[in-house]
Amino acid sequence: MTRNIPPIDGERFWNTLMASAEIGKGTRGGLARLTLSESDGQMRDLFRSWVEADGYSVTVDRLGNTFVRRGGIDNDLPPVLVGSHLDTQAAGGRFDGILGVMAGLEILRALDDAGIATRRSIEVVNWTNEEGGRFPPPMLCSGVFAGIHDLDWALTRTDQAGITVAQALDSIGWAGDVPVGGRDLDSYFEIHIEQGPALWEAGVPLGIVVAPYLARGMRIEVTGENAHSGPTPMARRRNALVGAASVALAVNRIGHAYADREGKSTVARLEASPNIPGIISDRATLFVDFRSPDPKLTAEMEERIRASLPDCAAETNTEIAVGDSWTFGETSFDPDLINLVRRSADDLGVPYREMMSQAGHDAYHLARITPTVLLFTPCDDGISHNEAENTRLEDQLPGLQVLFSAVLARANR
Length: 413
Ligand SMILES: [Zn+2]
What we know:
The chain has 413 residues and is an alpha/beta fold. It is 35% helix and 21% strand. It has helices at residues 10-20, 38-53, 98-114, 140-145, 151-155, 165-171, 198-202, 240-257, 295-316, 335-348, 362-366, 393-411, and strands at residues 57-60, 66-70, 80-84, 122-126, 187-193, 206-212, 214-223, 264-273, 283-292, 319-328, 352-357, 372-377.
């Protein structure tokens, strides 16, 4: 283990985060940089200009996943991959995902400063559409990379305006020509703010994620019939919006029923059509998800909502069906990498806590195809997916140094 890792330039690292915070600003101090939007394109362009100026090579795959490579001594060996995502939610923070990409970049730069050659190449990745806020589901493009979703399926996902992923990639000039995935990797490291309050409340600078929560998400489609909101008798109404509301409450009740065992349920999005005053909705779509630390509980929660749908439909005189569904968090993180991170933290005297991840991350998908580890750092009061998301350099540096030490050890393996 290298106790003497080369110094990280904290100010340079922080400046990359603050430069990012200027692109796609939200109205309340955070970011509104939805994936493949104009501002996402500007951020990508800026990032590429930085890394090309530093002399790294850049490859972009057909989904816009971007890989920045610092070559190793033996370039035939599979590289160590480090990264996260530069997109944000519509009302997102300045650190969620961005921290992990900029941490990777700072590692490359610190190695250059110190004139250190690593045995393996190190690549920094920006995954397209981690958030899924514009194109559900989340972690879409790391999912294709890991062979979980089909490329064509991903390219044809649409946003609320009917624009496809393929069209959005073209419109910002970030559709690359490299095939998605199918590459040998040595390992994948991701550092991310915790997005919950555990580290913040404990005053601990690092979380080593030992396992993910299993999450099951699904799209639920409700079908009713358009009718006038005045003369239509109550008994004849088939209001899809009301059917969706019934499902939303059922989903919420399930979360509360499992809350004592850390179960959680979310209705995150509801679209109704035509969504106009005076007309009863003929269609509604909900996006819901269930998660818990125990895969069996997550499955039970999902079964309960599926079993409730006929009642919701009967009560509201609608038809209700499950559309797409998705899973993440099935695969756990790599014990050797977890040990390596523990040893790095011990060596550097950085206190840490071992924990489970409740939020989805690209690392979940990467864990399917390569040894993967996920590190958490604190964010103020655990606030995230909120423009008020905040942290400071001194709260991030210990985690960044542990990441650097572990990546360096792995790259010299
Ligand atoms: Zn994130």
